[in-house]
Amino acid sequence: MASLPVLSPLQVQDLFTARLDEICGQFEEWGFPLVVAGQLGDVAPNAYRKYYQLPLIDPQLGTSIALEATKSILAAADVRAGDYVRVTGFLRARHLRGQVALRFEALAVDPYDPGRQKVDRAEKSLLDVLRGLSWEFHPYPERREARLLLIHSASSNALVAEDFLQGLGGGWRSERIRSLPVAMTDPHRIADAVGTCREDIIVLIRGGGDMSEFAVFEHPLVLEALATCQAHRVLGVGHTANRTLAERLVDHAATTPADAGHYIRRMSGRLWQQQEEARAQQEEIVALRESAASMAVAPPGPALGTRLRNALILLGLGLLLGWLLPRFF
């Protein structure tokens, strides 16, 4: 014991640091890679230009490790925060101020569940679009000669336009309706067709089908076009079971194309009836005004004082005659 060197506290700290450096250095010799799966977190700020620091999280337990990945690796994988990935890399250690921290140097990053990642991204994009939309209700137009844009399938086998027109009835002349056939599987063409609307009413219809065919009516382009359209918007898509987000962005959602035609017919008839009732009331008011005006310009009768004086004179004459007649006869 007497031969052991006597160290100062600083020397002990230096010895401990040297040992930690030695331990961390041994991880550099660990040559076999590991594959770790989890969910990417947000990039953490750091002073290393070569690496990004971001957590890899176990979504079930919440445990995370720190990844060090270059910008090129992340760009090549086309991943972002919230994606599920599988990371191949080396386990390393970092010694900083007496603390040893785990490091995981990423060599490759791959989507771990591409199908789920695609769905999650689509849902996130859709939610972002819905949050950014400014929607307001557009009432049925009060114009008696309103004009209508009918967007329907361009397929020659589709009879939805005829179904709508039969439901509409004969109250609408053909020159008031602009028919625009488009491909009902292409969200870009549907959105462009909605964007051409300068009419008072826009009707978007298509027949029934598999639920996968109606995903186009939840595409951000179509939803944004419907939300910004200034016409009275009517949707007649599929059947009762075919429900889409587009229903939330129109002024009336019909269950079928024919039902959309019935709705326009019903609203037009109600508007015509209201206008006829208003016209009849206006005519009655005008007639009453004319009658009151004719009475106001009629020649006035004798004043009350004049009528009383004349009555007294007649009464006096009557009394005088009544007194004189018995004297002569």
UniProtKB/TrEMBL annotation:
Q: Where is the Exonuclease VII large subunit C-terminal domain?
A: 158-285
Superkingdom, taxonomy of origin: Bacteria
InterPro entries with a match to the protein in the record: Exonuc_VII_L, Exonuc_VII_lsu_C
Pfam families hit by this protein = Exonuc_VII_L
* PANTHER family per the UniProt record, alphabetical: EXODEOXYRIBONUCLEASE 7 LARGE SUBUNIT
Designated name of the protein: Exonuclease VII large subunit C-terminal domain-containing protein
